[in-house]
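Ticket closed. Logging final result for Radical SAM domain-containing protein.
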Amino acid sequence: MLASDIRRIVDRARAGKQLGPDEIGELFSVPLVSEEAYYIQYVGREMSREASGGKAEIHAQIGIDNQACPNNCEFCSFAACNGVFKKPSIASLEEILERARDFEKNGANAILLMTTVAFPFEDFIVIAREVKRHLQEDTVLIANLPDFGYQEAMALKDAGVNGIYHAVRLGEGEVTRIEPAKRLNTIKAAKQAGLKVCTCLEPVGPEHTIEELVEKTLICRDIEPVFSGAGRRISVPGSRLERFGMVSEARMALYVAVVRLAMGYGAPLNCTHEPNVPAAIAGADIIWAEAGTNPRDTDQKTEKSRGFNVQRCRQIFKEAEWEVYEGPSQYFL
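Final structure:
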């Protein structure tokens, strides 16, 4: 029989009530194979359907560079401390434009451009302007960048960027060389400049406690993003975190649903990464195609390795019986 305390918490979320930290912690703590877990996932799916009008989205990220990053995020293949890539690489403007046009042609709802901290911000602005100029006028452009201030945020806005992806990651300041306050200041600057903000509970690993998951989920909620969700940590070969292994897709499906219940209906979309059917069934209605460099991959061109293309993302949503929204994302314009 479904535990009455879990039913009460889930039903409160479904009714639009804001959950407290202890309630969110209880949801994260339910046994994976249980009536409670599947009820959470059912309601997570229903809340996502209502929040997004039943339409899923596919965004497409282009990794521009791969350079040894001094921020040393231990979960990242770009981190200098992990020594994954022996030679740096930077995509040419022509390569970036080709990938962006291909993603747009295949129906991606938004294009993301990502760089490491080693890539000059001024060069990114030039690229963003060119990408924007070569795509359809209403194509949504999102930046996934290292930390920046208000002036840089205004420059992004002026270049035609619609929003940013930015997160206070699990272990921030402990397994990274970035203080959480710096991440939050970037988000604040982006909002002040009129940029939309997207975030996520990530990168989730077996090493993270329920308390950590709750703490970062509450930060996601406070950001008031276009989307939140949950993404798992992918093991980087040779990294210090590799010994912990990875969270299963089944558990991530539960976590994706818990985040939706914790966020309520305010965030239109609920994400997961990497794309998978269980999470989509549980309420993930935004996933990513990827090309170029990828902080979860050991291949310079992730489209040849871990990265999904738009068609594979469509298949994920088809298997989970989500309808994909056609056209530029409706949440960034």
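The first helix runs from residue 4 to 14. No further action required.
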